[in-house]
Amino acid sequence: MKCIMDDLTVYTPSPPAGQNALVVFPQARECPELPPSGYAPLRGSAPLGRVMLRDGRSAWAVTGHALARELLSDPRLSRDRSHPGFLAPEEWSAEVGTHGASPALVADPGDEAPHRPPLPYLTPRRTAALRPHLQRIADRLLTGMERQGPPADLVSAFALPMSALAIGTLLGVPYEDHDFFEGCSGRLLRGRTVREAATARAELERYTGQLLDRKRHEPGDGLLDDLMRQDGQGSLDRARLVTLPGTLLARGHETTADLVALAAFTLLRHPEHLAVLRAGKTPMTAVAEELLRCLATPNGILRVAVEDVEIAGRTIRSGECVVFVTALINRDATVFAEPETLDWDRPAGHHLAFGSGVHECLGRNLVRAQLEIALGSLFTRFPGLRLAVPAEEIRSKPANPTSDGLLELPVAW
Ligand code: HEM
């Protein structure tokens, strides 16, 4: 496996028979830490090019950082999934449903206005208060891994349960229910069939309804508790609270696990960068930010134009689909010098891994805290951590609508 970024500049895709050479979007990564090599031609058309979607339609592809920021704040580009021009999640990829989030869940209607998740409390302060809990979760999972002995799959033994439990803790799920919550979340997001996922969602909603009843008598300090207090003023209804865990898990469970696993893989592949981190010479906040930039795990952010938009010398017509290719946006050389290099010293905080504008990720502070704690704990607990198989055997997830990641990450220590 040649994992050098130069490959991107020389890659020339062969056009499908009878078609112009439009880059297909989305694609899976061959080299887990790099954008799919098939995106290379898009660099030539930066900041705005054309791609072919899996349903055969063509769409605009935003690859420049400044243009992405501008367009993500432009109300003429909408996230309305009911718009006929919007790409339905099941049309993202033929492979969706065989792995990764179920299309039914990705098409979660719960995050569109007026149904956007009510998360006024997901502030830096709340996240800071969660840090000791996140540390306990990481320590417990790593102890479990240690007891089982090497090798271990870091995705299933650490990254996935940690991110599910982090969301459970954020919501105020009691500790004794953690196993149920994590199991339900696993089936919800990685169920083999849409029916399995739907059953898990129904179970989760039933459980949340019971939890809300319990909390009415024994309030706690989770997000659900805060929202119930707010509900007392009549601003939220029970149905929204009951669906909130499913919505947050759809948004934040697998995405965060993908990032943590991919970050660990990247550090194991680059011992020189890991050594700096281990020497404690760089703040973990900087490490997390640079990994978020460089790994750019969201496969793409989607919009549909609801009016004509004249921009960058082109016209995006009303009804046309626009994809923001985060992996390339975060490697825009006009913004990030030597973008292919991992550089803990660069100010990377303005990457767009969390999007931008009104829909910027509401879980971003939680993700940052988790990434810092997960990596810090992992490499402290296992100073000799290494890949248990050759890097070439570690496979990326198929192209999917949520985020890029690894199928498995076998490690030993
Ligand atoms: C590595 C992990 C994550 C990444 C890369 C990520 C990325 C993103 C991106 C790119 C968006 C913007 C989508 C758009 O503009 O259409 C978004 C939105 C959102 N994210 Fe995340 N996310 C992550 C984890 C989380 C977590 C852990 C939570 C919650 C606990 C969360 C909750 C949300 C919500 C509620 C929105 C919708 C915001 C809105 O529309 O106002 N995310 N995320």
Automatic annotation (TrEMBL):
Entry keyword Heme: yes
Disordered: annotated segments: 101-126
Keywords: Heme, Iron, Metal-binding, Monooxygenase, Oxidoreductase
Pfam families: p450
PROSITE patterns: CYTOCHROME_P450
Spans traversing the lipid bilayer: none
InterPro entries linked: Cyt_P450 (IPR001128), Cyt_P450_B (IPR002397), Cyt_P450_CS (IPR017972), Cyt_P450_sf (IPR036396)
Family: Belongs to the cytochrome P450 family.
Official protein name in the record: Cytochrome P450
Organism: Streptomyces rubradiris (Streptomyces achromogenes subsp. rubradiris)
